[in-house]
Predict the structure.
Amino acid sequence: MINKKELVETLTKGRNSAKKLQNLLRQEVHEHDDGLVSVDDLVSEISQSFYGGLLVLNSGELTRVPVRARPTSACSSDKTPQVFTGDTGKTPASAVKGRRGCYKRRKTIDSRVEVSNTIEDGYAWRKYGQKEILNSNSPRCYFRCTHKEAHGCKAVKQVQKLEDGSNKFHIIYFGQHTCQPPNRGLDLDCNNSESHPNLPNSPSTITKNHIDPSLKQEDLSNKGSCSSSFALAWKEIFLNEFECFMNDGNLSDIWSDDSIFP
DNA sequence: GCTATTTGACCCGG
DNA sequence: CCGGGTCAAATAGC
């Protein structure tokens, strides 16, 4: 059986750590009055807390419920049909030569939103579309994970430049990466492309040029926010996963990824 | 030649 | 019917 008390305590600890991290990030101060607390330490602590919770879960006589389509995963197959379906059940127009494939529109409720100075998040994205949006000067760009073909990664994101003159970007993420995050772990030097020879330096790695070609390349790298962006991304993941677990008792596949939690 | 990007067409949901 | 999300042919870059 699952030690429910231990599980609750472990996850609660993780939640509290996440809140601390959230406060730290809001204050942009990496210290506490009770001593130095780095973002990395907190992220590590959160990671261990959730991993501990997962161990408790796995050690119990748990009949593991198949991971449902997560609320943040618009690509998941049972809640939302696959984006590209050569076989959707009905006789698709795509069956006719020269017609496009049938697909379902994503639900915004399955997304998570972020406003960032940079559209880089360590993952390799491939642009697959761009649209002019009504009453908006900035086009919306559509990206999917570069490893969609290789690893079946279903992560997708939409990026649109904010029109408030802040040079920030409104980013909507759909789905979770099932591929390996190129910048995860302790390597926070996201500007050191040589440490990730297979990924970010490829042409598929998006830059702000994809959104605003007028921007200079030296303006694109947000060097100071590299670690912060990493931590922010994890904060999002942890908080979301915790909420999902508390709501429906399920964890997504990322928690069984040994490469993330060895 | 291979891969990524661009862009107009297609398709769906509201 | 319209706006927006996606596809895929054409094109560009390496």
